[in-house]
Amino acid sequence: MNIRKLEKKAGQLRLDVLDMVFNSKAGHIGGSFSGMDILVALYYYLMDVGKILRSDPDRDRFVLSKGHCAEALYAVLADQGFFTKDELRTFTHFGTRLAEHPTRDIPGIEIATGALGHGLSVGIGMALFLRADRVPAHVYVLMGDGEQAEGSVWEAAMAAAKFGLANLTAIIDRNRLQISGCTEDVMPVGNLEEKYRAFGWQALVCDGHDFSQLIPALATRVPDRPVVVIAETIKGRGSKVMENIAEWHHQIPTATEYQTIKADLEKMIQEVSP
Ligand SMILES: [Mg+2]
User: Fold this and answer.
1) Which of 26, 50, 52, 230 is the most buried (most CB within 10 A)?
2) Which SS3 state, helix, strand or coil, does residue 59 take?
């Protein structure tokens, strides 16, 4: 897929997420929209999704450490054929597989997540066993920036560097907001690039909504060293109704807001140059 197609795909998947959240009156739309371009870069460009669909042992692994944004991943997985798009309508309904946080009942989900601060450790375990088995697969872990306040993230960061995990890429959705406000007010995480570098990682910063920056950053490999991509993003990216407003971490659009957000996304898709 070329960049224009990736941009269109990300817009269409945001529309799917909007419908899921609006219909179910549940979910985390702000962080789902900020991280969507990262998911699209992984699932439509970097990873061999065919291998994931077949559960090949040498498939790349993806861990959504910020599991509360499950609806973004569900939209991607449905579009890639892991289950039907119709099932998206059951999001958070009684008896559904598509709960507000992902579980292994769902095709394509490697690990249940949502308790923040655990995904990186899980990814390290995956990277260790893949390397031990000489499997040439890569592990990607997507975390939130609010999640960087969890001490367990930094224990994992030390371990990944100690083990020299060149087959591990951590991604931070750096939208500078979390559930209760600005990350730098709630618990300042400071300069993440310098911090991860001090922990022994290869650290890169890029525009998390620009595929021409995201793809090379996510494809970066360094011998004996894990890579962290700090993706500068906008919470609620795609509609002025939501962008950069902390309340949209967990807010549900009204009927009027739904129509405005939908129109903004459709305009964004249309404006992608042909
Ligand atoms: Mg955040």
Assistant:
1) 230
2) coil
User: What Cα–Cα distance (Å) separates residue 116 from each residue in 85, 112, 221, 257?
Assistant: 28, 11, 26, 29
Ligand 1 centroid from CA 133, angstroms: 35
For residue 181, pLDDT beyond 90: yes
117 CA distance to ligand 1 centroid (A)? 13
Q: How far is the CA of 262 from the centre of ligand 1 (A)?
A: 23
Taking a 5 Å cut-off on Cβ, the residues next to ion ligand 1 are 144-146, 175, 178
Q: What number does CATH give the domain 3-271?
A: 3.40.50.970
Is the pTM value of this prediction over 0.85? yes
Domain ranges of the chain: 3-271
80 CA to centre of ligand 1 in angstroms:
26
Q: Is 41 exposed, middle or buried (0-12, 13-18, 19+ CB in 10 A)?
A: buried
Render pLDDT for 217-244 as a digit per residue (tens, 0 to 9). 999 999 999 999 999 999 999 999 999 9
Report whether pLDDT(273) > 80. Answer: no
**What's the 184 CA to ligand 1 centre distance in angstroms?**
11
